[in-house]
Amino acid sequence: MPFFVYKIQSEGIIMSESAAETKKKILDSAMAEFLEKGFMNASLRTIAANAGVTTGAMYRHFKDKDALFCALVDDAIDASTKAVMLADVSNHLDLNNVVSKEHFAEESRHTNELINYIFDNFDAFTLLLTKAAGSTHENFQEEICDLHTKNCAETFNWMYKNGISKKKVDKMTVHFIASTIINAFLEIITHKMTKKAAFQYIENIEEFTRFGMLHMMGISCSDEK
Predict the structure, then answer these.
(1) 14, 18, 64, 125, 146 from 57: Cα distances, Å
(2) What sign has the CA pseudo-torsion 86, 89, 91, 97?
(3) Spatial distance between the Cα atoms of 71 and 137, rounded to a whole number of angstroms
(4) What does DSSP assign to residue 170?
(5) What's the pLDDT tens digit per position in 24-41?
(6) Exposed/middle/buried for 199, CB within 10 Å: 0-12, 13-18, 19+?
(7) Rounded to whole angstroms, how far apart are CA atoms 109 and 218?
(8) 101: pLDDT confidence band, cut at 50, 70 and 90?
(9) For residue 189, how many other CB atoms are within 10 A of its CB?
């Protein structure tokens, strides 16, 4: 390989690593600034200074403060959305028994995965729930509740139409159930619960809502196998 080609490739690798390191420093600085002051009061100058870069260097990575905030929380939003979509009709079409031990075990597995994810990304969720006013994601809690309500309503209707449930659930009741479940998870962050406490708390909420819903829909829990 000609020397000049090797040198260009090597320099490209060095530049790439340097850019990645700079971006990480900016994100770490931004996380601290947003957590302390919230989106509205956070200073881009302070973020750049604490990251050891110029504001110009920061703008090469993020076009504005909102883009910087989004970079910190978008993965948490994606994970939340995927978890909520498990309530969609498409994830229930192949179920032989909605009260089977296997189905409950699968639900618990997904729940545990979400709790672990929340604690691995606690700061990102803290930003979303308590520091997002003025940002693109200031309505995250409302939006995720609405999505869960929509999925639950469609699934409950499908169950009723297919004779799986004997009682039709009205819209406001569905909204109450869906938002209660979402808010239960979000309170892990707002109340700064320990991981151990969170697992026990969600297990209690899950049992309460699960069997309450089944009874309300006319599905006998004695059918569990």
Answers:
(1) 17, 12, 12, 27, 38
(2) positive
(3) 11
(4) P
(5) 999 999 999 999 999 999
(6) middle
(7) 26
(8) confident
(9) 21
